[in-house]
Design goal:
Distance between the termini: 29 Å
Structural class: mainly alpha
Oligomer: single chain
Number of domains: 1
Helix content: over 70%
Number of strands: 0
Shape: globular
Number of helices: 6
Length: 183
């Protein structure tokens, strides 16, 4: 029972920070402004760990490599702690591989969340202060879909198509995660 509680707490804390670090990485990659409530929250929760690493590890091709490395390290340490709590002896290669796959999986989850929020805001309040943030995140992924799925009676179905594509993408990612556990 205590091991389950420990696993839950470690998973909750580590997942929170990994999601924030990935949000920071994707905000910079997609050129989302940090001058909003979400951006300020992401910076406030991640700068303490990213800034020291940034002094040692430079960015790569315009991407925030230090943030990605820290997210991967947090996820790997969290997985190792969880496995240790339940009495398993995880291999270093398996933990590293699962952590890398988890970053892809969590990135898809972030995009799914952004698609849902952007879709709801576009119907409920398209002029909400956070609407441009989610629109900036989702727009590069919707643009190619909109070429093939035009609006029908002024209703844009491209977010629904993107949502389905992301759900389909999660299936092989989850299989890859299981396969990575055997490394």
């Amino acid at each position: 029972m205590l091991a389950q509680i420990g696993v839950l707490l470690v998973d909750a804390v580590v997942s929170f920070f990994v999601f924030m670090l990935l949000a920071r990485f994707h905000f910079q990659w997609l050129r989302v402004s940090f001058h909003n409530q979400v951006g300020q929250f992401v910076l406030a929760t991640t700068s303490w760990v990213v800034m020291p690493v940034r002094r040692v590890v430079p960015g790569l091709a315009g991407m925030d490599l230090p943030t990605l490395i820290v997210a991967w390290a947090f996820q790997a340490i969290g997985l190792w702690m969880q496995a240790t709590m339940v009495g398993a002896e995880p291999g270093v290669g398996a933990v590293a591989a699962i952590a890398a796959v988890d970053l892809v999986r969590y990135s898809v989850y972030i995009l799914v969340f952004a698609v849902i929020v952007q879709f709801v805001l576009s119907w409920v309040n398209p002029y909400a202060p956070l609407a441009p943030v989610f629109d900036t995140i989702v727009r590069p992924f919707l643009r190619p879909i909109r070429r093939f799925v035009p609006p029908i009676a002024n209703i844009d179905l491209s977010p629904a198509v993107l949502f389905i594509i992301l759900q389909v993408l999660l299936i092989p990612v989850n299989y890859l995660r299981v396969a990575a556990a055997t490394v």
